[in-house]
Amino acid sequence: MKILLINPPSEHTITTNVPKLVEEGVGYIPPLGLMYVAAYIEKNTNHQIKIIDCEVEGIDYSQLENVITRENPDIIGITALTFTLIDVMETLRIIKKVNPKIKTILGGPHVHIYPEETLKIKEVDFVVLGEGELPIINLLENINNLEALKNNKGIAFRLGEQIINNGREDFIQNLDELPFPARHLTVYKKYFSVLAKQSPVTTMFTSRGCPYKCIFCDRPHLGKMFRFRTAANVVDEMEKIIQMGIPEIFIYDDTFTVDRQRVIDICDEILKRNLKISWDVRARVNTVDLELLKKMQQAGCERIHFGVEAGTKKILEVLRKGITLDQAKAAFSMSQKVGIQTLAYFIIGSPTETKQDILETIKVAKKLKPDFAHFSIMTPFPATDLYRLGLENGILPKDYWQEFAQNPTKDFVPMLWEENLNREELVALLKKAYRSFYFRPSYIIKRLLKLTSWHEFKTKFKAGINLLFRV
Ligand code: B12
Ligand code: SF4
């Protein structure tokens, strides 16, 4: 069979209707989930498989119709985020227009949260819950024999009037058994990011699952249990990436530093093999120390993204972040000391937060002296504790995400947490946060002095101009 995996055009991503001031993902980031699924299919079956990333390949909807007609696949798989559902539906509509016999499979976080709602979309034939690697093989074996799929975990579908859904497959325990993501099936030389020092960039996952309990966060499909790959396996993948001519890696693990010894082992392995590769990670301020950071820097770690979220103890507690401001201070100052760049994330408009609290967050953001700061307005995401809390206490009047999943509309605007401040006030404070962080002469001079290449100057200059015109 011929299988096409599609990352749809990004024309209707649901936003919070808040100006997108600085976007972490300015650039194009590879569709890692699809690359994992593709690699597993390649390894375990003889089916033909191809990935189309409409975003980076510059394919719009009219061109997509031609691509599907030309490729003439039997099956098409798509990743669905709640926020990309409108684009997913547009893609599905085109697929069935080209050939109604093409079987469609959706995977990703959205379908895991809302499987039954997703199966109400008539163009969806199957949804794959949780991690896609194991269920997709069962599904491909029996795609024309629904009776045989009836008892399988991880696959949901319509059978007559009934919806068959046996829940997700057990999590993969030994992540080393997975083949490396199928980068070779993508236009891997075209991925880049404003944050990167070099291009092209790629992404990696060295672990799955985050054990922490932040109230606003949900990664439903990969679970809360931290599962990790061994250092040798991680560094083998890095070697393959270098051989492909890719000099920089974004490690997108939810929290790279959960297990200190594993981080040291990975760094030692990179150093032992003498690999020249730049990488960055997402971590928590309470999981780093000077010795660890030094080791990471020696092994090529360029940047760490830390979620600080708020500048007051009160809000950190409300968010169940499990960090203190002292830990934040220490983490940023140690990173600076060893020469690792930092990016700090902050959220404004959290439960019980006042204007005074937000002004304090802006102050703390400047005091920590990160290289970059990212501010956003609290938007309750589906299936989070925050969303449940809002529904319970009436701050959020109705289950609007479920309604959206059932009946997706282009003009949908997610609610904010307007307990003390309304949308306009929050947007004004968000703009203030960006202005006061980025447009300080001391900050601008520091950044100019840190530029190391023409590529870096060009991408960062473009992002700076963009910001200037938006705030
Ligand atoms: C990297 C990342 C990004 C990158 C790159 C996106 C990309 N092209 O992949 C950037 C920064 C661009 C980004 C942007 C956004 N992101 Co994002 N992102 C992530 C992150 C951190 C990692 C994704 C990843 O690579 N996972 C690793 C792989 C292995 O997992 P996976 O992709 O889920 O795939 C597995 C399964 O889901 C399944 N599967 C997935 N697709 C398919 C398809 C088929 C056919 C099958 C069978 C199986 C299958 O099998 C895969 C292997 O097991 C996740 C959080 C997380 N931990 O997953 C958030 C996450 C996916 N993002 C999220 C959001 C909200 C966004 C934005 C909307 C943010 C915004 N406001 O702009 C945008 C949307 C961009 C877009 N148009 O797609 C949410 C989605 C929540 C939801 N309910 O849908 C997540 C879960 C984070 C969160 N809770 O906040 N993101
Ligand atoms: S915000 Fe980060 S640390 Fe908190 S639960 Fe989510 S992934 Fe884990």
Describe this structure in words.
With 471 residues, the chain is α/β, with parallel strands linked by helices. It has two domains: 2-165, Rossmann fold; 195-379 and 416-470, Alpha-Beta Barrel (TIM Barrel). The chain is built from 19 helices and 17 strands. The protein is globular and about 65 Å long. Iron/sulfur cluster binds next to loops.
Task: From the structure above, extract its key features.
471 residues; alpha/beta; Rossmann fold; TIM Barrel; 7-stranded mixed sheet; binds cobalamin; binds iron/sulfur cluster
Brief synopsis:
With 471 residues, the protein is of the alpha/beta class. The chain folds into two domains: 2-165, Cobalamin-binding domain (Rossmann fold, 3-Layer(aba) Sandwich), CATH 3.40.50.280; 195-379 and 416-470, TIM Barrel (Alpha-Beta Barrel), CATH 3.20.20.70.
What is the element layout, followed by pairings?
Blueprint: E1 2-7, E2 27-28, H1 32-44, E3 48-53, H2 54-57, H3 61-71, E4 75-79, H4 85-98, E5 103-107, H5 109-113, H6 115-119, E6 126-128, H7 133-141, H8 146-149, E7 155-159, E8 162-165, E9 192-193, E10 201-204, E11 207-208, E12 227-228, H9 231-243, E13 248-251, H10 260-272, E14 278-283, H11 290-298, E15 301-309, H12 313-318, H13 325-338, E16 341-348, H14 355-368, E17 372-377, H15 385-393, H16 400-406, H17 423-438, H18 441-450, H19 454-470
Parallel strand pairs: 1-3, 1-4, 4-5, 5-6, 10-13, 13-14, 14-15, 15-16, 16-17
Antiparallel strand pairs: 2-9, 6-7, 7-8, 11-12
The chain binds cobalamin and iron/sulfur cluster.
Helix content: 40-55%
Number of H/I helices: 19
What count of structural domains? 2
Low-confidence parts, pLDDT < 50 over ≥5 residues? none
Mean pLDDT: 94
CATH superfamily of the largest domain: Aldolase class I
The gross shape turns out to be: globular
Q: What is the end-to-end distance? A: 51 Å
How many strands, what sense, and barrel or not for the largest sheet?
Answer: 7 strands, mixed
Beta strand count: 17
In the CATH hierarchy, the third-tier topology of the largest domain is known as TIM Barrel
Bound molecules: cobalamin, iron/sulfur cluster
Structural class: alpha/beta
CATH class term of the largest domain: Alpha Beta
CATH architecture of the largest domain: Alpha-Beta Barrel
Residue fraction in strands = 15-25%
